[in-house]
Amino acid sequence: MLQISPHSVEQDLKKHKLYAIKLAGTPRFGKVVTWWLGGLMLLLVIILFVPWQQNVDGNGHLTALSPQERPQNIQSPIAGRIDKWAVAEGQFVKKGDTIMVLTEIKEKFLDPELLPRLQQQVGAKQGVIKSTFDKAESLSNQIGALNSGLKLKLQQATNKVYQGRLKVKSDSIDLVAETINFSIADTQLTLGRNLYNKGLISQVEFQRRQEKFQNSTAKLISQENKLLEAKNSLLNAQIELNSIRADYMEKVSKAESDRNSTLAYVAEAEGDLAKLENEYSSMLVRNTFYTIRAPQDGYVVKAVRVGIGENIKEGESVVTIMPANPKVAAEIYVRAMDIPLLKKGQKVRIQFDGWPAIVFSGWPNVSVGTFGGIIQVVDFVESDNGKFRVLITPDPSEDPWPTQVRMGSGAIAWAMLDNVPIWFELWRQLNGFPPNLDKESKSSNKEFGAKK
After folding, report:
1. Rounded CA separation 263/247 (Å)
2. Contact, 226 vs 205, CB < 8 A?
3. Per residue in 22-55, pLDDT tens?
4. Could you tell me the domains of the chain?
5. How far apart are CA 69 and CA 91, in angstroms?
6. pLDDT tens per residue, range 233-260
7. ∠ at Cα 296 (293, 298), nearest 5°?
8. Are the CB atoms for 45 and 412 separated by under 8 Å?
C-alpha cells in the first residue's frame, strides 16, 4: 500500500478483526522469538570476546610435603609372637610410646639366662686370653735367658779354644827344642862312639853320652805326645763350641716356635672373644626390639596384624601411623604436554573432594570453595601412571586449607596462565594446542640459547 491518503486503512482492519487479514500478518510469538534469538546471538558474540584465564589442571590427592610426615607402616625388626597390644586404632601416641609387646619364637634365643651365660663366656674367654698371653710373655723371657746363656757359653768355649791354640803353639815350640836337643845328643853319641872306638874317650864317657841320647829321645817322644794331646784338646774345644751353638739354637728355635704358636692362639682367642662380645651386644639390642614403640607423634590408623599370639615375620608391617601436624601438600599428576608450563613458586587453585565448591576454571575470581596453593616440587621424571607429579603447598597469603579434609582425600588443581578471549580458548581446545603456545616456545628458545 502506498499510504498516499491521510486516512489509514490499518485502523479499520484492526476494528473489524478480519480473520484472513490476521492470517496474512506476522504472529507476535514469531517476533518475540526473533528478538530473543537475535539477542542470544549478540550475547554469544559478546561472550566470545570476554577474557578467559587459561589453566593447566590435574588430579591427585592430599599428602604431606616431607616424606617423614606421611603415613608410615611400623615394621617389626625381629620375628616374634604378639603378646600384648598397648594402643587402639585412632589413638594418639607420642614418640617412644609402646605400641606392641612381642615374645621370642626362635629357638636360639629362648634361653631366659642367655645374657648372663654369654657374659660368662666372654669372661672365660678373656681369662684364657690373659693366661695364654702370660705364657707368651714367659716364653719371651725364656728366649731372652737362652740368648744370654748362649752368649756366656760361647764366650767360655771360645776362651777354651783360644787356650787350646796357645797350648798347641807352646807344645810345638817345646817339640822344636826337644828335636834340636835330640839332634845334638845323636851327634854327640855318634862322635863319642867313634872316639871310643879309637880309644880317645873312656867307656864311662861313652855310656854317659848314650844315656843322654836316650833321655833326649824319651823327651822328644813325650813332647810329641803332648803336642798331639794339645791338638786333640783344641779340636775337642772347637767341637764343643759348635755343639753349644747348635744346642742353644735348637732350644731358642723351639721356644720361639712355642711363643709364636701361643701368640697365634691369642689372636684366635681374641677373634672368638670379639664374636662373643658382638653376640652379647646384639642380644642386648635385640632385647629392646621386643617392645615396638612409636617413632614419632601421631595417630594409630590401622593395625595390620591383630591377633594375640599371632606370629609375625622379621620386617613385617604391624601397624600404620599417621604423623601428627604434618605440613600438608597436594600431590597432583599433570600431563606431560603441560609440564613445561609449570614451575616452582607458581600459584594454583585447588578444589578438595567433599568440600562444597562452585568452580569456573576460566574465572577463578568468581569461583567459590577453592583454595590457593603454591607449587613446591615438579618431578623430573614421569610416574608409573605416565604423568608427572607436582607437589603444591598452601598459599600463606590466602585462607588456610580446611582441616576437615583428611590425608589421601582427592584434589583437583588449576595452574592459572594468561588471559585470552573465549574464542581463542575454544579454537585452542578444538585444535588440541597447549596453552601459551607462542610464549612457551619463545621461553624454550631462550633457555635453549642460554644453555648453548
Report:
1. 24
2. no
3. 555 556 666 677 778 878 888 777 777 767 666 7
4. 54-67+326-420 (2.40.30.170), 72-103+292-323 (2.40.50.100), 114-288 (1.10.287.620)
5. 17
6. 878 878 877 887 788 788 788 888 888 8
7. 100
8. no
